[in-house]
Amino acid sequence: MNISQQFAPPFKLVGSFFISAMIIFFISILLLFNFDINMIHTQNSLVLSWVHLYLLGFVMMSIFASMAQLLPVVLEVEHFSIDLYYVVNPLLFIGTTIIFIGFYKYPMVLSYGGVVVFISFFIFLLESFLTIKKVKKLNFLSSTVLVANIFLFLGLVVAIILSFVYSGVLFLNIKALMLSHIYLVFVGYLGITIISMSYILIPMFWLSHSFNNIYLKIAFYKISFGVVLVVFSQIFDLYIFEYLGYFEVLIGFIFFIYQLYLIFKTKVRKQKDIYYRYIVFSITNFIIALVLVCFYFVLSNDYLLFVAGFIFLLGFLTPIITAHLYKIIPFLVWFHRFSSLVGKQKVPMLADMVPVKSSDFGFVFYLLGFVLSLIAFIFTSDILFKSAVSFLFVGASFIVKDVFYIINFKG
């Protein structure tokens, strides 16, 4: 990656996002003890509050921090105004907290939390669009960033409307709005962002070369078209387009998985480090989640959809984000603290900044907790699920500890 000093944002800015993300990640795992998988259908408010806390506070915070660093790399231009990110973090943290409280206990405050989150996201999107505007000619990767951000903006508009519906201010079709929101934000923004960033980062960290990227492009077009079809179907009640959209998205993700397989085949780095293990773990779970979603459409079993969602969030998103935290944060800390000392004094290697044994413990405990949770879902055993969460909590504790260790690394 070509990252010049002038393009790199201040570490205190990026670091603040990672700190907020880790705090909310730790709280999110702790809150899993409140779930009873035998009564999950009666815990809708708890599920919604937890999902929004996890996605807004952990996933989006991590992505925004990464985009602050990677956007200039992808677009090959400077940020329009990196200082705008200083406002995004506190607003997103406050808005996420209000939304969590709103879904969990006080629906009346949902609209307030929604407005605060909307403002934080709008500032992020405004800065991103103005940065994209500086690009003289869009290439494929910059096009994926543009399309993903357009989906995020539309998803935010739908989210604001939804918050007023849940608050009792508006009376609209909640199911149609919810499905549109999910596909615009989860599939449209998150899906395309993960695809484009994975295309940059995974080959870089695995030292993969000379692979055909046509399948990534097909995945991007299929997923984008699928999202448009699903949203279009909800607006005009044309449900044949809804299922066509589902099919397009599924085919798009299959092409994405095949692209990752090609990247894996051409990788030069043979070391199976913590990054490698988390990536393989996450992609395996992503495939399992897709299979379960397919079974859901055949069997119409809501429990399958819930388990697929659990696998997608905690089996795919958490590991793939964690994998990149173990790579991105050491680089940012090294770049900030030690790059100017090269040639003047001995500086640590990037590998020296990652606590190997601690990261291994975190991975093993998280893996055990996740596998136990799947067994708990199979047997609908809440006692086993609580045991699984205990392992997940220990694994998450190691991850959070490692991130703070790397952020505070002085050499």
TrEMBL record:
Organism: Arcobacter caeni
Membrane-spanning residues: 12-33, 53-75, 84-104, 110-132, 144-169, 181-207, 219-240, 246-264, 276-298, 304-326, 363-381, 387-407
Annotated keywords: Membrane, Transmembrane, Transmembrane helix
Keyword NAD: no
Protein name in UniProt: Peptidase M50
